[in-house]
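Example 3.2
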Amino acid sequence: MKILFVVTEMRLGGRERVVGHISDGMLDRDIDSAIFSIWQKPSYFELNSPVYLKSNKLASKSDKRKTENNIIKINSKKILGSVAKTVFKFSTLQKGRIKELVKLVNTKGFDTLVLTDLTITLAKEIKSKLPNVKLIGWIHMEEKAFFESQYPQFKREIIDGISVLDKVVTLTKKQSISYKKYNENTINIPNPTPVFQVKDTLKDNNSKNLLVVARIDVDHKGLDLLVDVLTKLVAMGSEKWKLDVVGSGKLEDEIKFRKMINNANLSDKINLLGALQPKELAFFYQKADGFLMTSRFEGFPMTIGEAFMYGVPVISFDLDGVREISGNSGATLFVDKFNTTEFAKTIQNLLSDENLRDDMKKAAKIRIKEFEVPEVVNTWTRELE
């Protein structure tokens, strides 16, 4: 078996990180595995898997420098790109990339392609050119959010692509049921959480530490809701606390988020740390007393798994993906969507109850063992055979 994962890009994000973990996990099992990136940008993550930007070109450090030197885009090009998305099919816009992909498959002999999310729109075109290659679709989002929030302009094309896939992989049982109406051969495989060496937790006795790890996307990640929650937490006169926010996003979202923080007079309570590599991020997980998730929708958030691995109690709105990874472990406190007052009260209760935090910490470390990378990779290989 030779597997090629097809992504839009390997940017900093949970979906992209999971693709890397699964592909590297395949290599650990002596299965040929690689990644093809539609956008010709190097991977943010350091991987063992080859990442192809063209049919015969691996990503390199020089590619990264070129990308960094061309971050500023001409506004007219951005406008034309936005217009094109509303007029043309995604597969039409990516004719050249499909040609490169097909060339790579034929040259390297890949027999299985895993198309992730938006790249499922390419399925019909790929099927016509590579009829003997197995096509798997990997969807990382619940149906409503996927079609209405993430890719509304490509909904029809994605559904058409799903219909020709040999198999569809979703992240939760609920998601698999909802996508079966587009393709009967739909299953669910949870995302993995890699195992790190976790040191003893670092705690500040003078202040409680809260943590958010998320892409800075105000609407998707509910950062406006987060600000509302924290404003109410301050009004409740809760004990001393600080929030560390790890993540980056589009410039307009980062500016909007900072403005919201300043307007709510929360600048002295929130540390915006930007994107961090795993070793740097570990420090903030280790000192956290609680992990907050205020997203409006999630598929199967890796950050919850990471919090569990470090024994950090989680507070989250009641999302399917968070329910799936938490199970009945007791490691997560769920709040009704999108009740910010209840969320603030739940934080206050957690921070004031050391016994509750200790119980949740133990539960989290037990629960996460079910999602280690080798176990999830075993499931993938069984389903692909």
